[in-house]
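Schema walk-through. Below, the input block comes first and the output block second. Nothing else is stored per chain. Lengths vary across the set, and this one has 459 residues.
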Amino acid sequence: MTTRRQFLHSSAAGLFGAALVSRAQAASIPEAALQDKPDMQPPLVPPNGRPYHPVVTLNGWTLPWRMSNGWKEFHLVAEPVRRQVAPGMTAHLWGYNGQSPGPTIECVEGDKLRIFVTNKLPEHTTIHWHGILLPNGMDGVGGLTQPQIPVGKTFVYEFQMKKSGTFMYHPHADEMVQMAMGMHGFIVVHPKNPSFMKVDRDFVFLINAFDIDPGSYTPKINTMLDFNLWCWNTRVFPGIDPLVVRKGDRVRVRMGNLTMTNHPIHLHGYEFAVTGTDGGWVPESARWPEVTVDMAIGQMRAIEFVADAAGDWAFHCHKSHHTMNAMGHNVPTMIGVDHRGVAEKIIRLVPDYMVMGERGMADMGEMEMPLPDNTLPMMTGTGPFGAIEMGGMFTTVKVRQGLARNDYKDPGWYRHPAGTVAYELQGESPPAARDRPASTPTTQPVLRAKKPAGSAGHH
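--- output ---
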């Protein structure tokens, strides 16, 4: 077995940080697990090492490891990937081990990690371990704390997890391009004491965004703010997994924001507490009840609640254009415009022309319109009562009585008890009673402004 000394001796820079792996040492590198399906995988129960309750990654999976002389060894492969954003659309991205985002890395406070990173991109890369306390030479900033990882080469990072919490990994090399192409992943460090911060269900996802023109497959990497696909784990509604919860469970949801703007994440039907940040766990005395948590750029948050109310509860970003799919930013507002006469003339030339927008945009969520290849409707999704009219960062928390402990299968739509659904008033609707407005004087006072006589004293 190759020793730590041999690994670090393989590069002069490796004496102080991430080390290049030689051809001989490559024979001892653990196998790189791959996943090319967008389906949520079951939680990975630890086969060795300290026990912990594993997380569930929305539309994702946890990276397996092997034990080697007290070190947990992982293998990440940076490479071009294809990711289904939702049924009907696939994006050509960069990621890790066949996916964007990359697999979740799980370990325990105090664990020693050895992470091999193989570069199969067309350019150099690194990995920064966002929020992890580690030696400076393992921090992953290309040119500053380590050499860049050349194309076709493998570097090794070694460090010990000093604290539990919620963290991320992403490149610090050609960062604008590589992160815009989907290169990031989640790190969960479980407490050494399994009873500390214990929950029954623990979900994780990263918030990311892309600008992909209708009909195309590759993101525009120079976009700064006007993204048109707002994602959780590189998925948009209706492709985002529901968070399936057993009634009575204590639930944690861990989130990280790697977009170029903030996101107010809102949960219906519950109040929750923010129990963790990327800086650590929040003491109970410092928490307060919330229904929306604002995720700033580069931040991590963990929220917790007790699932005591059954139902299908909406869970989404509260920026309304972030719950839509590929949208046109320059579409004019037609609300209130009577364009029947113009429409009649257009229909003579274009028989299939449809008038839309004068009553709002809801028609787009109810009708099927021809779209370019590899393009999603702007508003979509069908629920038990009709069109949901959502997209982007939207899913549901499905709380059900009697689920098995590790049952994360979608239970279908909630069956509401009789008398608990909003209903239409039968018969003729009565006129709405309105108070008369307060009487106003028939003549309004005239306000006059006096113009200064001069500019003396002003410079």
